Amino acid sequence: MIRYSLVTQKNPREIVLLKASPCIWGHCSFCDYIDDNSTDINSNILFNENILKKVTGKYKTLEIINSGSCFELPIETLEYIKSIVVSKHIKKLFFESHWLYKDRLHEMDDFFKVPIIFKCGIETFDHNFRNKVLRKGAVFSGPAEVAKYFKSICLLVGIKGQTTEMIKKDIEYLLKYFQYGCVNIFTQNSTSIERDEKLINWFKENYSFLDEEKNIEVLWNNTDFGVGTICNS
After folding, report:
1. How far apart are the first and last CA of the chain?
2. Is the pLDDT of residue 77 over 90?
3. pLDDT score at 230
4. Domains in the chain and their CATH numbers?
5. Are the CB atoms for 221 and 189 separated by under 8 Å?
6. Do the bridges between strand 13-17 and strand 4-7 make them parallel or antiparallel, or are there none, so unpaired?
7. Has residue 149 got a pLDDT over 90?
8. Window from 35-39, 192-196, 214-218 with minimum mean pLDDT
9. Strand partners for 182
10. pLDDT at 232 over 50
11. Dmax over Cα atoms in the chain, in whole Å?
12. Could you read off the pLDDT of 123-144 as tens digits, one per residue?
């Protein structure tokens, strides 16, 4: 499991994969990344500190990810990150958050006092597919509501049962409503969710232009950010 890397293409930044308490939701049907957490808080604190010591401040931007949301990281880890923000002159942070924490994002803003781009795993704006098939646990009226809270979203592409019309609408909303975005091409993992190669090939033929979009990152492989193992988040 690789825990530290550099993202050098779009929005250059350092990225770390930390350990936290279990995900607040924890029911997503496509996710086996949830196993990368621990209820041993003291162990998480020490583990995370060793990873964070690798941060150099090279790009003045740092992304923190874990198998859930930033709110599940130990407070001691958050305090250590804050010390790094100061000592390494970090000017921007990227954090992940489940939709359920949408009303608490200001707590992180107040704590770190630097701009934070919060990323939310929406996966798709199709309500039934998102909540009945993917079991995401995110209920909202549409992209405008999501954009009130999050500048960045993550979409998931390439699952059997997903349609081209769903994906067209998802990408339309991504480009219209959000400043940043990440499109994750589904990697077959240990869950029962199946990868749709035909749909992925269609996406490549029609949406490879996203690779040229400044603030849209397409993860054709789930380790394209340089962290993690061959599993899907």
Report:
1. 14
2. yes
3. 41
4. 4-219 (3.20.20.70)
5. no
6. antiparallel
7. yes
8. 35-39
9. 154, 217
10. no
11. 48
12. 999 999 999 999 999 999 999 9
82 membership: H or E segment, kind and range: helix 75-87
Amino acid at 126: D
For residue 221, the model assigns a pLDDT of 87
97-111: pLDDT as tens digits? 999 999 999 999 999
The rounded distance, in Å, linking the Cα atoms of 37 and 161 is 29
Sequence-separated (6 or more) residues with CB below 8 Å from residue 144: 177
Give helix 75-87 / helix 41-52 axis angle, nearest 10°: 20
Torsion of CA 219, 68, 108, 50, to 10 degrees: -90
One-letter amino acid for residue 43 of the chain: S
Average pLDDT over the chain, rounded to whole? 95
Please choose, from the candidates 121, 113, 123, 124, the residue with its C-alpha nearest in 3D space to the C-alpha of residue 150. 121
CA 202 to chain centre: 24
β-bridge mates for residue 2, sequence order: 228
CA atoms 124, 177, 148, 222: torsion sign: positive
In angstroms, the CA 181 to CA 92 distance is 16
Can you tell me the distance from the alpha carbon of 164 to that of 184, in angstroms, rounded to the nearest whole number? 15
Summarised one tens digit per residue, pLDDT across range 80-94 is 999 999 999 999 999
Q: Helix/strand/coil (H, E, C) string of 121-187?
A: EEECCCHHHHHHHCCCCCCCCCHHHHHHHCCEEEEEECEECECHHHHHHHHHHHHHHCCEEEEEECC
The CA-based dihedral angle spanning residues 226, 213, 165, 136, taken in that order and rounded to the nearest 10 degrees: 40
